[in-house]
């Protein structure tokens, strides 16, 4: 069982709206099982899972302003879709509060878009966040992704990125360049 969360995480987690705390707890349950299945450090994975949405309740304007204040320059896509900043902002704020583990920080930073070169802790946090059963309406292919994730994190990630990219393209939505680079890396390594 994972250890106690650092105060910089637990106090922020406690301050989140109940629905977001519920999401985080579902994701922690999913991610713990994936971490165990793949032989990963349960404490690092759980810390990333607990911290992944600490800035998710902020509105778009606040995400942009706080990101700029902490030294993150939002891209054109992030200015259009500020919600994409909640991971990078949370990671930067946790780092400024003294959290130093790069695996955890990367898992928080990249849990929404993915990122070329992500480690296994970050891969589990990314997948667990998407595998929340409450997101089945957004991702009707979650059962397939979950089945793949039991055997291979990379296969599950690649399939998720293929399907979600196809959805974005069919609906004329923007796609973050990090997601495309991550997908291409996974495809090249396949």
Mean pLDDT: 97
Estimate the helix proportion, in percent. Answer: 55-70%
> Can you count the helices?
11
Major sheet details: none
User: What are the segments in which pLDDT stays under 50 over at least 5 consecutive residues?
Assistant: none
Taken in chain order, the helices and strands follow as HHHHHHHHHHH
Counting DSSP E segments of at least 2 residues, the number of strands comes to 0
The CATH superfamily turns out to be: Hypothetical protein af1432
In percent, how much strand structure appears in the residues?
under 5%
Overall description:
This protein is an all-alpha fold and 190 residues long. The protein is built from eleven helices and no strands. Helices cover 66% and strands 0% of the residues. The radius of gyration is 16 Å and the shape is globular. The model has no long low-confidence stretch (mean pLDDT 97). The chain has one domain (7-189): Hypothetical protein af1432 (Orthogonal Bundle). The longest helix is centred in the first third of the chain and has 20 residues, at 18-37. Helix 8 (120-130) crosses helix 10 (153-170) and helix 9 (142-151) runs antiparallel to helix 10.
